[in-house]
Design brief:
- The chain is α/β, with parallel strands linked by helices.
- It folds into three domains: about 5-95, OB fold (Dihydrolipoamide Acetyltransferase, E2P), CATH 2.40.50.140; about 115-265, P-loop containing nucleotide triphosphate hydrolases (Rossmann fold); about 270-360, Ribonucleotide Reductase Protein R1, domain 1 (Orthogonal Bundle), CATH 1.10.40.50.
- The chain has eleven helices and 13 strands.
- The strands form three sheets. The protein has a six-stranded mixed sheet with strand order 10-9-8-11-13-12, sandwiched between helices. Strands 3-2-1-4-5 form a five-stranded antiparallel sheet, with no helix packed on it. Strands 6-7 form a two-stranded antiparallel sheet.
- Helix 3 runs parallel beside helix 11.
- The longest helix has about 45 residues, at about 315-360.
- The termini are far apart.
- The structure holds guanosine-5'-triphosphate and zinc ion.
- Zinc ion binds near residues 285 and 295.
- Zinc ion binds next to helix 10.
- It is an enzyme of class 3 (hydrolase).
- Belongs to the TRAFAC class YlqF/YawG GTPase family. RsgA subfamily.
- It holds the Pfam family RsgA_GTPase.
Length: about 350
């Protein structure tokens, strides 16, 4: 396996994707590298699992006006020219998947957390950490990203871990075709159950709350102690936050594991398709008396009736309503932000026109 392949290069031979082949042909003296870190001042890239460096980046990526999706993120492939201090990124290769999240603040923004990921292991412990609602939230955030989600339930070996009950509470998720695998993250043989998603040249991320077992699983998958695991605080089973950097880790299976702390905060971007993520509920909602039924108090609500019959899980429905509102709010913010931007552009143009009229074209 080539060093590039070990960090997730998606092709066994020459690039079969025409857009990639074209970009590479346009820069004959450049070589591919993968972004491992993104900083305010620039990027760190790698061409092998063991070495990384900071090439000069394209000046347009530093501009505030540059939309976040147009600049590289962790996991992106770029083309680099020159060696040592003269190394510079000359192009960003097209991405085939992108995990985004909404970042609230004074200005609404979207953040690109990771690019070119094949599989996201949504890690959740079968202990006090177990929360189907949080899993649904992760799945919604991953919907439309191009990344395949796989739910990994850790701590299956622990006393009190009830795999059957967990599977039952995730039945709607399973029915959507999402794989759910229960493992002991400390045990090599048990973690082998994840091998269908660990082929050569593939890239995976682990997401999940603190203490879920991400570092433990990472160490077992790598066969080494690359990640420090959090010491569990007395009483609450939650590990400390020990993941401090972003990195590409090459696994013996030939899969590249991308460590991104960015998935801790789970804010929707406003672009998620709630109807698709909760297709089971949407299908029943088609039978509500009112087309715009909010499934709260309306008469003839098929969703509430299904909950009463036991056909729909009340917790899942409540989570659907909550996430639907969150996505709608984020989507409004996104629309406002885009309108403001368009407005600023129009005003800028109008001002230039007035100045041109007053002082003549220069
Ligand atoms: N018995 C058992 N313990 C586990 C398993 N997975 C994780 N643990 C324990 O749970 C604790 C937390 O695991 P970590 O791997 O540190 O969790 P994390 O998700 O990396 O946490 P952060 O680094 O805070 O995000 C550690 O004490 C692990 O040993 C498992 O499958 N079985
Ligand atoms: Zn309804």
């Amino acid at each position: 396996m080539t060093p590039l392949r070990a960090i997730g290069w998606p092709f066994a031979g020459p690039p079969t994707d025409p857009a990639w082949a074209q970009a590479i042909a346009a820069h004959p003296s450049a070589r591919p590298a993968r972004v491992t870190e993104q900083h305010r001042s620039g990027y760190v890239v790698a061409e092998s699992p063991d070495e990384s460096y900071s090439p000069e980046s394209l000046p347009e990526w530093q501009r505030a006006k540059c939309p976040p999706e147009s600049r590289p993120a962790v996991g992106d492939w770029v083309l680099v020219e020159g060696e040592g201090k003269a190394a510079r990124i000359v192009a960003l290769l097209p991405r085939f998947s992108a995990i985004k999240r909404g970042a609230a603040g004074e200005h609404y923004k979207q953040q690109l957390i990771a690019a070119n990921i094949d599989t996201a292991f949504v890690v959740c412990g079968l202990d006090a950490d177990f929360n189907p609602r949080r899993i649904e939230r992760y799945l919604l955030l991953l919907s439309g990203s191009g990344v395949q989600p796989v739910v990994v339930l850790t701590k299956a070996d622990k006393d009190g871990a009830d795999v059957d009950a967990a599977m039952e509470s995730l039945s709607a998720t399973l029915a959507q075709g999402v794989a759910v695998v229960a493992v002991n993250a400390k045990d090599r043989a048990s973690v082998d159950a994840l091998s269908p998603w660990l082929g050569e040249g593939r890239s995976v991320v682990l997401v999940g709350s603190s203490g879920a077992g991400k570092s433990t699983l990472t160490n077992t998958l790598l066969g080494t102690e690359k990640m420090k695991t959090g010491a569990v605080r007395e009483g609450d089973d939650r590990g400390r936050h020990t993941t401090t950097h972003r990195a590409l880790l090459a696994m013996p299976s030939g899969t590249c594991l991308i460590d991104t702390p960015g998935m801790r905060e789970l804010k929707p971007t406003g672009e998620e398709d709630v109807a698709e993520s909760f297709a089971d509920i949407e299908a029943i909602a088609a039978q509500c008396r009112f087309r715009d039924c909010s499934h709260q108090r309306e008469p003839g609500c098929a969703v509430r009736a299904a909950v009463e019959r036991g056909d729909l899980d009340a917790g899942r429905v409540a989570n659907f309503l909550k996430l639907r509102d969150e996505v709608a709010a984020a989507s409004d913010q996104l629309a406002t932000r885009l309108a403001q931007k368009a407005d600023a552009r129009v005003q800028g143009k109008a001002l230039n026109k007035r100045l041109d009229e007053k002082y003549g074209k220069h």
